[in-house]
Amino acid sequence: MTSASTSSSSAGVKRKALSIDDKLRIIKLLPSSSLRTILKNRKEIEKNAFSGSTKRQKVRNGKNEQLENILLEWFRQARTLNLAVNGPVLTEKANEIAKRLNITDFGGSNGWLDRFRKRHGIVYRKICGEADAVDDNSIKSWKETILPNLLKDYSPEDIYNADEFGLFFKLMPDKSLVMKDETCHGGKLSKDRLTVLTCSNWSGTDKLKLLVIGKSKSPRCFKNVHTLPCDYKAQNRAWMTGSLFIEWVQQLNCEFVKQKRNILLFVDNCPAHPKEITLTNIKLVFFPPNATSKLQPLDQGVIKVLKQKYRKKLVQRYLLEMESVTDAEIPKINVLDAIHYVSIAWDEIKPEVIKNCFNKAYFDNVSQEDPHVLDSDEFRDFEEVYPGYTSIDDQLITNEALELEEIINQATVNDEPDEPSDDEEEYIPPLPSIASTVQSISTLRQALTATDGSENMLLYLGRVENFLLNKYKNNVLKQPTITTFFNPRK
After folding, report:
1. Which helix H or strand E contains 231, and what residues bound it?
2. What residues have CB less than 8 Å from 275, skipping those under 6 apart?
3. Which bin fits 128, alpha (ψ -120 to 50), beta or left (φ > 0)?
4. Exposed / middle / buried, residue 401 (Cβ in 10 Å: 0-12, 13-18, 19+)
């Protein structure tokens, strides 16, 4: 699996050697103090470059920053829904938010409105009407005229599609009938669900790191966890929101800036995908409303295969654990387990599967997709044994227009981990010692040596062992000073 973060390094961006004359020109252009300040605040400058007008000399936050963040989220959602929002509407909504936040010194003057617009790069534009549904003629026009014109200046390596799907990550086959077509607006089931954002290019050679959205900012299973195979964010309903999407796509844009690449990114038309985002190296294209089931590549089979692979891993784990422990002792799947399994499943998806799904979505009208690439005998057998198991959460909502109260609650929530109820209390195993870890690796090595064709796996296992031992050695070498022994801990 490749990711935006790793692909930049593998791309090998060339450094240009500067001559002494070049360096002198830079020194003359900027005083050393200014240059140091810019380099020190580099990440903050890059972040603010995408949040508003880049012509501003300084980034100033408003007096009521939390109020403005909530108002900005509401505004982005309204624009995604194609609702007309003018100055008086913004001011009225700002006054409503101030009242709910118990802010008594907010006036909502014309001067504040002007400064708010400039801070966030908001301009007034005429809104064109947008149909609620797409007819066959619109789809025909898309695939025969609009799409080819969009694709002509890009190679398959630079054409991407991003799409979210909902996942009941704990669901086992015996629960399927109860939860059929569950949309999960909230309640108890929301704790057992995740939203997963997938993104890949047309050629299938660059599967970006997954973004997983859960309900809790700090799940208990994240204790002692410093590295994840994906990005993780929290939202009180485990939904994608406009703010989360903007943060994700802006970080992706920064990676493509570093790689000096310009790409085309297709996404569906929904409230969580704001249209007015400032991007330099990504051209954001929205599918016609209500047509993603026919036009979006990842919806043509990639997500189905990903969920098949994920659920097969759940069943395999359950069956193996049944052989060694009683039903009462079988550990439940937690968010961390789900993150690892869904990331492994995403890594296993082959480029030809993704390429075929792009072709099925009319990205290539010449070639025809091979249905056997998407529906192997292995997964046909799985579907026969567990009918409906893979598609059980196909209707799971991943985003929706939020009420103002929900936006406020989301902006004011604290970072404390959720307190599970008594029946949801999960066992968090202690961090294994280096000795027990090496013993486990030895057990794995023994199992691999008894298995044909495991030569590469043995090499990988050796690398894992060396990595962990080196980490341990570096920690051990950080010996305490002699004064430590004369000042023991109490």
Report:
1. strand 231-234
2. 79, 80, 284, 286
3. beta
4. middle
Residue 407: other Cβ atoms inside 10 A = 21
Provide the token pair at 98.
């101030």
Query: How many whole angstroms separate alpha carbon 80 and alpha carbon 277?
Result: 11
Strand partners, 166: 195
Count of residues making up the chain? 490
Q: What is the DSSP string of 11-37?
A: HTPPPPPPPHHHHHHHHHHS-HHHHHH
Rounded to 5 degrees, φ, ψ at 165 are -145, 150
Exposure string for 294-311, b = 16+ CB within 10 A, e = fewer = bbbbbbbbbbbbbbbbbb
The answer to whether 465 and 457 have CB atoms below 8 angstroms apart is no
- Top-confidence residue, 389 or 247: 247
DSSP codes, 406-430:
HHHHHHH--SPPP---GGG----PP
**Three-state DSSP state, 285:** strand
Amino acid at 400: E
The radius of gyration of the chain's CA atoms, rounded to the nearest angstrom, is 26
Distance (Å, rounded) from C-alpha 185 to C-alpha 183?
Answer: 6
Q: 146 with 343: CB under 8 angstroms?
A: no
- Summarize pLDDT for 270-322 with one digit per residue, the tens: 888 988 888 999 999 999 877 888 899 999 999 999 999 999 998 888 877 77
Strands 159-168 and 211-214, bridge-based pairing: unpaired
Q: Is 82 left (phi over 0), alpha (psi -120 to 50) or beta?
A: left
Q: What is the mean pLDDT of residues 37-55?
A: 55
CB 194 within 8 A of CB 169: yes
Query: What does each C-alpha distance from 246 to 174, 228, 272, 392, 404 come to in angstroms?
Result: 38, 21, 9, 29, 19
Which residues are paired to 284 by β-bridges? Answer: 265
pTM above 0.90, yes or no: no
Please identify which residue in the block is written with the tokens 């993104």.
Answer: 199
pLDDT per position as a tens digit, 95-119: 889 988 989 888 888 888 888 888 8
- Is residue 262 within 8 Å of 281, Cβ to Cβ? yes
CB 235 within 8 A of CB 244: yes
Rounded CA-CA distance 27/25 in Å is: 5
Whether pLDDT at 480 is above 50: no
Phi, psi of 311 (to 5 degrees): -70, -30
Got the DSSP string for 375-401? Answer: S-HHHHHHHHHSTTSTTTTTT-----P
